[in-house]
Predict the structure.
Amino acid sequence: MEKKVIIITGASRGIGKEIAKQLAEEGNIIIANYNKSEEQAKQLKKELEEKGKEIEIYKADVSKEEECKKIVEYTIKKYKKIDVLINNAGIDKLQLIIDVTKKDWDNIINTNLYGAFCMSQQAAKNMIQNKNGKIINISSIWGQIGASMEVVYSISKAGIDGLTKALAKELGPSGIQVNSIAPGFIQTEMNTDFSKEEIDNIKEEIPLQKLGESADIAKCIKWLIDDSYVTGQVISINGGWSIT
């Protein structure tokens, strides 16, 4: 099986890290992007290289156009193609809407939404030439149903789903599939601030009565990479939390 060249943004921690590990285990070439978590990225590289897997780590702030261009150009120059782009990088801030500043808005929207747009824009150029490629965006349940005290984050993730559907229509004729995965409550570093009581209350709201794991998202990613006919979909992985 031919190795796929896969860029994963925000790959040093949480869901992104698990995606990188599982896709590397399958023999793919991973370009793992990070911005601030350099030590975690280095540890991921070491862990996978010790197993004989192919991984590179690349520092880039995806909220900046020039840095998106550089990681894509670097990948194409070295590997001649991009088979899969996984837009996972994201940040959040819990706050009331009346406390949201323009800086807060810019930080979250530029990283979560513009970052996914810009990386897709740059990678699509190569994918269109090759008449092949997959873009997989990591959205959120909050982009579908909204979250109190996470208004800006919810907006950014709703935007991701809109981007997914629009790109799927635009890039489909070029043989490119674009999909979004909307995780529910996944056990990652982003959710460590929740108390045990809060976690228990959330579990009670979820039909499967348990939290998700990063591996649940990575499994869906692997399926989407293998698939040849699914595009423009927002796939909810949340234990039934968003059932209406």
User: Anything to note?
Assistant: The first helix runs from residue 14 to 25. Strands lie at 5-8, 29-34, 54-59, 84-87, 133-138, 176-183, 234-237. The radius of gyration is 17 Å.
